[in-house]
Design brief:
2 strands, 2 domains, MetI-like fold, two-stranded antiparallel ribbon, single chain, 13 helices
Length: 241
């Protein structure tokens, strides 16, 4: 590549600017990391770069800060609660959505388009609007004319309530995205499997699921981060944990 045809991001000056920006972002994080291994008194007394320059940093190393955070502040229980909520709330909707997406993409049944429209329409319902009804549903169930339609589960204050809630919140989007992803798979492969007599379950597990790993992984990352960072939903349901 000649100098005239060189892309702007390949020029030395551009690379120098990008490196400077990266170092500007990394420098404070690096300082926080190094300071976390120093006792509070030393942090107040001198800066971390000064302690490294004078050689005192290596004599001040301690795990006191981490010990206080994880044990004195009960952070270990907080981490346990976070992952106990996040992991099932990610796996359950993706598992259900994968089967639903396959049905919408490759199976023919009555009312398929209408059901898919309902799935897409449910995506516009704000999460905040459904919290109070869900709390009441999980506690008292649903009755119609005195006849129980959904029994009283009484699961508020448990992880299960949050799993169910986040499954309901994430399932429509997961179904929509995975259905579109699966429809982009080679049709000839699916048709060849059906011609050879493969059942829907065989086609799903042997062909569609392995080919959809990247799409599933992408949504799993999104769902995991969304659930992990969710405060309102977790505050509403497992308040006794």
């Amino acid at each position: 590549m000649t100098r005239n045809n060189q892309k702007w991001y390949d020029k030395p000056f551009t690379k120098l600017i990008l490196v400077a920006i990266a170092l500007t972002w990394i420098f404070p994080i690096f300082g926080f990391l190094l300071s976390s291994f120093r006792p509070p008194e030393a942090i107040k007394r001198t800066s971390w770069w000064e302690s490294i320059y004078t050689g005192k940093y290596w004599t001040e190393l301690t795990l006191q800060n981490y010990s206080e955070v994880f044990f004195a502040e009960n952070l270990d229980r907080s981490f346990y609660n976070s992952f106990a909520i996040t992991i099932p709330s990610t796996i359950i909707p993706i598992t259900i959505a994968a089967f639903a997406a396959y049905a919408f993409a490759f199976m023919e049944f009555k009312g398929k388009n209408f059901l898919f429209m309902m799935v897409v329409a449910s995506m516009i319902i704000p999460l905040q609007m459904s919290l109070i009804p869900l709390v009441q549903l999980f506690k008292s169930g649903i009755e119609f004319g005195g006849i129980p339609i959904i029994p009283a589960l009484d699961i508020n204050g448990t992880f299960v309530a949050t799993w169910f809630a986040h499954t309901g919140f994430g399932l429509p989007l997961a179904t929509f995205l995975l259905r579109d992803f699966m429809m982009g798979l080679p049709k000839s492969v699916i048709e060849s499997a059906k011609i050879d007599g493969a059942s829907n379950m065989t086609t799903f597990f042997k062909l569609v699921l392995p080919l959809s790993v990247s799409g599933i992984a992408a949504f799993a990352t999104f769902q995991f981060l969304w659930v992990y960072n969710d405060f309102l939903g977790c505050k509403c349901f497992p308040w006794s944990l």
